[in-house]
Amino acid sequence: MKKAWWLLYNFLVIPFIYLLFKIARIFNKKIRSGFDRRRVQNQFIKEEMKLLDSSKKMIWFHSASLGEFEQAKPIIEKLRKEQNINILVTFFSPSGYDNSKKYPFADIVAYMPFDFDKAVIEFLEIVNPNVVIFMRYDIWPNLLWQLGAKKIPTMIVDATMQKNSKRKIFIVKQFHKSIYKCFSDVLTVSIHDAESFLDFKIPKSKIKAVGDTRFDRVYQKSLTAQSKKLFRDGLFEGKKIFVFGSSWDEDENVVFPAFEKLAQNDEKVIMIVAPHEPTEVHLEKIENYFVKKLKTIRFSSKNNYSEERIIIIDSVGILLTLYFYANVAYVGGSFKQGIHNVLEPAVYGIPVIFGPKIESSLEAIELVKRGASQIVKNIEETFLILSRLFSEDEFRDKMGLIASNYVNENIGASSKIITEIEKYL
User: Fold this and answer.
1) DSSP state of 303
2) Residue 317 — left, alpha, or beta (φ > 0 → left; ψ -120 to 50 → alpha)?
3) What is the pLDDT along the chain (425 residues), one digit of tens a residue?
4) Which fold has domain 223-409?
């Protein structure tokens, strides 16, 4: 049966995917960059390999993009401290590669090779990994089949599998069975995911629920963030801070009117709004909304702060640190395509509110279930919950404590994963 899948994949599926990429590279600069880099990177990797200590074992981490790589970082950095190893990091997407090629804890950062048998075999001969770790879901059949043939231990980490996953549709399911059985270990984020993977006839001994490294990563980053000084000491003394993170227009249409009403009733409340995309057009739109209502100031002008009620973030990469200043947070995306990271504010032990589109976030669902978060569907609901959170300290502190406890309970997946990796070192 594996031969049939190999023929189907190599003579139909992968040539079609490759053709799509060749067409897409004409119109997309990022795809073109990744495509062209793959064609020449083997020589670069050979030169890099010569600089490494060949007596050390090579651990290869693969992530689809930057988000998945964030989940790999706590594992990599802890491994670095505990083991004398070489580390290879690969990406499928140009954004992951471009933003991580100078990552200090990796010896080599590269693109995943095109999933042709010949390309995969050549890549494996160059890097000669001792263990290969796939983050979450970005797995490639030819690579896995070759790793299995070479008996190189492979693991999928932070793995998820919904009961109604499309990977379980009959023909697709048979194909995935031939892939998943190549894994030495399937390490899932929950018991439910572990049970769901059993549908692919993977031996139960290979599957373990070890938790989600996103909790480790957000906790790790929060410790670093607290040492940063985004605002001068005492700037918010006596104030109540509401951080509106990753805002989209759809979120702003609900939250801005609610906050405006709140600010009329409470002169101590301040909103820090961090647009998901802080383009000049978006920044000006926010300023224009409040122009005759509340004073605004951009973060880049913070040294001129003079009791403005709205601080507009006009830079990127500081949202996690902004939540450190918050008494209450709203996480955006939840009135549009799907909610952003709710763990970033929750790690600080503050209440988190958001809109209704949270199906893609198990963390948001769990925070609501536990009572650390609340879903809002309109302006009035948003105003009411904000009013209560900023006027009732005990209520706010109780919700925040639940949020903090939830994060703390789930820290430690990285250590469990490393224990599994060490079996092969």
Assistant:
1) G
2) left
3) 678 888 888 888 888 988 888 888 888 888 888 888 898 899 999 999 999 999 999 999 999 998 899 999 999 999 999 999 999 999 999 889 999 999 999 999 999 999 999 999 999 999 999 999 999 988 899 999 999 999 999 999 999 998 888 889 888 888 898 889 899 999 999 999 999 999 999 999 999 999 999 999 999 999 988 788 899 888 999 999 999 999 999 999 999 999 999 999 999 999 999 999 999 999 999 999 999 899 999 999 999 999 999 999 999 889 999 999 999 999 999 998 889 999 999 999 999 999 999 998 989 999 999 999 999 999 999 999 999 999 999 999 999 999 999 999 999 999 999 999 999 98
4) Rossmann fold (3.40.50)
Q: What angle do CA 179, 115, 185 make, to 5 degrees?
A: 35
> Does domain 2-212+412-424 fall into CATH 3.40.50.11720?
yes
Token pair for residue 331?
């996480």
Give the residue extent of every domain in the chain.
Answer: 2-212+412-424, 223-409
**Of residues 130, 123, 178, 189, the one with CA closest to residue 156:** 189
Q: Convert 10-37 to b/e letters by CB count within 10 Å (16 or more is b).
A: beeebeeeeeeeeeebeeeeebbebbeb
Residues 6+ apart with CB under 8 A from 303: none
Torsion of CA 404, 218, 153, 97, to 10 degrees: 160
128 φψ region: left (φ > 0), alpha (ψ -120 to 50), beta (else): left
Residue 57 phi, psi (nearest 5): -75, 150
39 and 119 Cβ atoms separated by less than 8 Å = no
Give the residues across from 156 on adjacent strands: 134, 186
Continuous segment of H or E residues that includes residue 143: helix 141-149
H/E run at residue 187: strand 185-188
Q: In whole angstroms, what is the distance from residue 3 CA to residue 181 CA? A: 15
